[in-house]
Amino acid sequence: MSAVLIGNTPLLPLSALNKHFGVTVLGKAEYLNPGGSVKDRAAASLLDHYEASGQLLPGGLVCEGTGGNTGIALAMLCGWRGYKCYVSMPDTVSSEKISTMRALGATVEVCPSTVGVSDPAHYTSRARAVAASTPGAVHTDQFGSLANMRAHETGTGPEILAACPGGLDGFACAAGTGGTIAGVASFLAAASPSTQICLVDPQGSGLKSYLASGTFSKAGHECGKGDTLTEGIGIGRLTANFAAGGPHVRAALSASDLEAFRACFLLARGGVFVGPSAALNVVGALKLALRLKRGGVDNPKVATILCDGGASYLSKIYSAEWREERGLAGVEQCGWGDVLED
Ligand code: PMP
């Protein structure tokens, strides 16, 4: 399945945004992958790696700690390839994603989101522990295994550049494991050195300050998320995947939840129904494009990743009740002119 159906997603020009700001932001429609997210690529690459190394044998148990989408991707691929699947995740993951993993046959454990990464109850510790205590099990380790970023170095990055025959001024993307940005950055640094690669950091994440100073400003956030409500992104520790591509990431900027949530609805009304991390990436790509424009680039072309689809968030940002409870009523009514906070 992986070779046929995963990847080769279209790079969509976000027309209404582009018209309003006089830029060209392009979104890689990763929500069109069969498991509904960019993580299908990483999951297929991880399974390929553990199969090739002989560690994953027919009928074995695949264990992973996930923000949700890797769990969906692994559950789908394990069903297809004949493995059992265990996924652990923080209690902040949407109920839609958990239901999807269960429907696909995975055993799901929901873990407290309040504990640090070194705590045995942390979702990544649980996946490691279950793999260690189960004969024939493999911990696919999406944070540590570079098979994750290689999926983007050999797939996502080349596909983006091939879709931009006139060249690409910028690429902007947030990090969860860091696999996507590291892989695309590693490819572009060699194949298109003039493309500026920019990290988009959600509120509360320490990665931007790490890139600026070499240290994390928010000690105690080593488990990562900070205070963002945007699922799947934001890290306050250096993952092996981010570290492998980090030297190619020369710029960083922040985007807030409010900006991402406004962009969710603006994109949806333009026919692009995506989750908050995709919308946050679009905000980041827009900010990078405006920065390049101020620097003299005419109609800058910036690509980003539309990580997953909106249907996984019907009980969250796309629920009026959820928005009301968090003081977010009205985000669905703004125009492109009001999307940015500053
Ligand atoms: N958005 C969502 C919704 C995700 O689930 C993830 C993966 N955690 C990402 C973005 C970030 O991708 P990566 O792990 O490649 O950094």
Automatic annotation (TrEMBL):
Pfam family, one: PALP
Cofactor: pyridoxal 5'-phosphate
PROSITE patterns (UniProt xref): CYS_SYNTHASE
Domain Tryptophan synthase beta chain-like PALP, chain residue ranges per copy: 5-308
Superkingdom: Eukaryota
Residue stretches spanning the membrane: none
Protein name (Swiss-Prot/TrEMBL): Tryptophan synthase beta chain-like PALP domain-containing protein
Annotated source species: Tetraparma gracilis
